[in-house]
Amino acid sequence: MNAQVWTHCSAATMVEGGAPYGLVDDAALVTEDARIAWVGPRRELPAQWRAAPEQDCRGALLTPGLIDCHTHLVYGGDRAQEFEQRLNGASYEEIARAGGGIASTVRATRAASEDELFAQSRTRLRALRAEGVTTVEIKSGYGLALAQERKCLRVARALGREEGVAVTTTFLGAHALPPEFAGRPDDYVDELLRMLPALHAEGLVDAVDAFCERIAFTPAQTERVFMAARALGLPVKLHAEQLSDSGGATLAARFGALSCDHLEWVGEEGVRAMAQAGSVAVLLPGAFYFLRETRLPPIALLREHGVPIAISTDCNPGSSPCTSLLLMLNMACTLFRMAPEEALAGVTRNAARALGLADRGTLQAGRRADFVSWDVARPAQLAYAIGANPRLQTIQEGRAR
Fold first, then answer.
1. 3-state secondary structure of 213
2. Which of 49, 108, 310, 394 could form a disulfide with 350, with the two C-beta atoms 3.0–4.6 Å apart?
3. Mean pLDDT of the chain
C-alpha cells in the first residue's frame, strides 16, 4: 500500500464521545491508498509510518469531506420569475397550483437534452466541490416520465464519474403530478411502480424518495411507492412536514427511512417515530430562508429524542437555488440556533448517515480518505464567516482534487 502522513495540522475528526468536534491538536493523519489508516496526536504516530512520505499541511484544520445529502441538482432552466412573484405577494403553494413551481421545471427539464442538462448541472456541482464537498446526493423528480427520469439519473451518474465527486442517486418520481396525469394521481402512482423496477434494473437508483404533502402525494400514495422500494431492497427517505403535519414522518419511520427532510411542521409523534427508527432529520435552511418561512423546525424536540440532525443545501431552482454548503452552516446556526459543532456534524457524520453511508463522515481508521484542509484555526470559523471559502485542498479517496 502507498502510505502518506499528513502533519502540521489539527483534525476535527467529528468522532462522537470525546473532545468537541473530536478535535485533535497537533495531529497526524495516515492514508493508505483510498483509506485512512490512522489519526491521532502526532507524537503518538506509530513507528510503522514514521518513514512514510510526509505532507506538510502548514497549520491547516482538517475535517471530513463535506456531504450534501439532499439536492435536486439536475434540472433545466430557472425560476427567477417565480422568485419575483413571491416577492410581490404570491405564496409557493399558489404558484404551484397555477401551473408553476415544480411543473415549470419539469417542462424545462424535459425540453433539455442530456448534454445540456449535464453542462448546466456540472456548474452547480463544481461550485459544491470548490467548497470541500466530496459526496452529493442527487434526486430525480423533474422528468416525471420514464425516459425523462432515466435521462436525469444518467446525468447524475455521469457527473460523479466526470467530476470526481461521489454521487448517490435517489428516485423522486413521486415529486409532483405531471400534466398528462392531471386529476389522476393514483394512475400516476401506477406508472411510478412501473418506472422504478426498470430504472433500478439499469443501476440508476440508490434510494427512493417522495413528496408527501397536500400539494403532492397523500400518505396512502406514498406508502405504495415505499412498498415498491422495499420489494426491490431500496432504502427510502421522505420530503415530510414541510407545509403541514401530514403524518409523513411517522409513515417514513415505519419503513425504516434513512431520513425525513424539511420537517418544519413535524410533531412529537413523528419525532418519536423517527427516533425509534433511527431516521435522520435533514434540515434545509436555504429553503426556509428563500421561502421566507416563519415556522422553525423543532430543534429542541429533535435533540430531546436523540434524532441526528443533518444539514443540506436542497439545491433546486424553486425554493433553494443554492450551491454553498458552507453558507448552510451559517444559516443553520443563525436561523435554527444550532451550535457550530452540531452544524458541522450535520454536513459530515450525520449527512453520511442520512445517505446510509457508513464509510465516511468522520476521520477514523478504515474510513474513506475523504477530507479537506482549511485555512482556519478552529472549526467554528467554518460556520462563522458569511460567504467565505477558506478551503485549501480537498483529498478524495487519498488523492488531491
1. coil
2. 310
3. 96
Residues 6+ away with beta carbon under 8 Å from 2: 32, 33, 398
Of residues 247, 368, 317, the one with CA closest to residue 83? 317
Are 65 and 132 within 8 A, CB to CB?
yes
Set of cell numbers at residue 128: 459544491
End-to-end CA distance of the chain: 20
Number of residues that this document lists for the chain: 401
Residues 328, 71: contact at Cβ < 8 Å?
Answer: no
From CA 60, how far away is CA 298, in angstroms rounded?
A: 35
Task: Render pLDDT for 103-162 as a digit per residue (tens, 0 to 9).
Answer: 889 999 999 999 999 999 999 999 999 999 999 999 999 999 999 999 999 999 999 999
pLDDT in tens, 183-194: 999 999 999 999
Amino acid code (one letter) for 29: L
- Spell out where 112-265 has E strands: 133-139, 166-174, 207-212, 237-240, 259-262
pTM, entire model: 0.97
pLDDT at 212: 94
Q: At what angle do helices 146-163 and 114-129 cross, to 10 degrees?
A: 40
C-alpha to C-alpha distances, 26 to 9, 32, 45, 251, nearest whole angstrom: 6, 20, 11, 47
Neighbours of 392 (CB within 10 A): 15
Residues near 377 by beta carbon (within 8 Å), at least 6 away in sequence: 61
- Cross-strand partners of 61: 10, 374
When computed from its CA atoms, the radius of gyration of the chain, rounded to whole angstroms, is 21
CA distances from 382 to 38, 280, 341, 342 (A): 24, 22, 10, 12
Cα dihedral 113, 116, 117, 121 in deg (nearest 10): 180
Rounded Cα–Cα distance for residues 158 and 390 (Å): 28
CB atoms closer than 10 angstroms to residue 94:
13
Q: Pick from 226, 203, 197: which is nearest to 157 by CA?
A: 203
- Return d(Cα 352, Cα 360) in angstroms, integer: 6
The edge-to-edge listing of strands for the beta sheet with 35-41 is: 35-41, 23-32, 3-12, 54-64, 371-374, 391-396, 399-400
Cα distance between residue 21 and residue 23, in whole Å: 5
Cα(58)–Cα(178) distance, integer angstroms: 54
